[in-house]
Amino acid sequence: MASTPRPSGRRPVRPVVGSRNPTGRPRTVAGRSQPPAETPVTPPVGQPIDPPSAPPPPVEEAAPPPEPPPPSPSERVSEEPPATGGTVSGVRTTLVLVIAIVLLVGVAAAEGWFLWLRKEPVVSADRPVVTGEVAHRAAVEAASQAADEIVSTSYKNYDDQVDQAVAKMTDGFAAKYRQTAEDVRDQFVRAKKEVQVEVAAEGVVRADESQVQALLFLNQYVTTNGKHTAYTPYRALVTVVDTDQGWLVSDIETK
Amino acid sequence: MEVASGGSGGGPVKLGSSLSRRHIALYVAVVLLACLCVAGGVLVWRTHQADERAQAEQERYGDVLAAATEEAEAFINIKYDDAQGSIDRVADGATGEFKKQYSSSTKGVLQVLKQEKSSMEGKVLWAGVVDSDQDSATVIAATSGTVANQQTNNQPVARNFRLRLDLVREDGRWLTNDLQFVG
């Protein structure tokens, strides 16, 4: 493109404020690294720099836009700082945002750490029950019903009651119970015994999410051949564990 | 001139646009992270509050069981040669009607203890909370021990009890206001 020679003695035409870059001069955009003021600027050959004392002639809006003249060193000095400031401002904004992100990530990580690594309380003498009331009440009630079913039995349907009882037990405890039930079976059936149990009182001794120990006061009534023969009050510590089949008895200790 | 114009005009525009897009992305990230942190903060605060409430409730079970155990053991450890001390230990953990009844029978109890040369020893095997709230609780306790007196020829005989204690909280202490044998 041929450049239009600038008339000698005229200063470069400055854009009118508010005009859309009528001169076609390259815009300075924030973020663009322009050479700083101290960067040596070489005036184009054949375009001597006008003395600053020469007053600029008035510029008419309607005048055809001249080719962009090279800015004088003085103009560059006066126009480039805003461009450099915008760049610095942009970098500062980026930096602030990145720092904010880093801080927020740190806060989020701390929150996640607190929630993830929060220790569940464990059973101790100071805190023997570390579950909610609803949970341990349900477990104690399950222990009470299971104890009733396990202890109450009759010579009339001894084997069926053993099967019903082991359904309330864990596999390990069921194996022990079956062995004991088998050992006393013949004597129990021959004597035509029946055992009935009622729970006089129940309370929670220890409890966590997976295991609960319940203290039961049991009143046991034994009849032999249809005749009431004995009443025995005793205490049982029944341990139940939480399984897919609900609370199952894993141990019964009586005294 | 053309080279200079293109070089100093297109580059900055592209660079500025890129920077703006980057800022927008960073602003969005900051806002999203801030929302996450606020939600996480609320969750942490609620969890912390729930933990504190749960801890207070769980420690209440421990306090109630400890007080009931201490009172039950005081009740089943009575020695004729330290009758007053034995009774004082029971009275120390008692309140209300139970304390009145126990204190009113002190004179008769002392006389019987000395007359029978009675000694009762024991400990709580298991104790369980039947019911509990902030100011009252019911505990059952299974005890195991012995009693020796003239009727047993001063030989210790097993005595196991099933006790039911009602407790109330007074001035930060759990005190027994009723004690019953569960028949």
Task: Characterise the protein shown here.
The complex is a heterodimer of chains A (255) and B (183). By secondary structure, chain A is an alpha+beta fold. Among the domains of chain A are: 69-116; 133-254, Nuclear Transport Factor 2, Chain: A, CATH 3.10.450. Chain A has helices at residues 73-116, 133-151, 158-166, 171-190, and strands spanning 153-154, 193-207, 211-224, 227-243, 246-254. A five-stranded antiparallel beta sheet of chain A has the order 1-2-3-4-5. Chain A is rod-shaped and about 105 Å long. Chain A starts with 72 loop residues before the first helix and ends with a strand. Mean pLDDT of chain A is 77; it is low at 1-65 and 71-83. Chain B has a domain at 68-181: Nuclear Transport Factor 2, Chain: A (Roll). Chain B contains four helices and six strands. Chain B has helices at residues 2-75, 83-92, 96-104, 106-116, and strands at 78-79, 119-132, 136-148, 157-158, 161-170, 173-181. Chain B is rod-shaped and about 110 Å long.
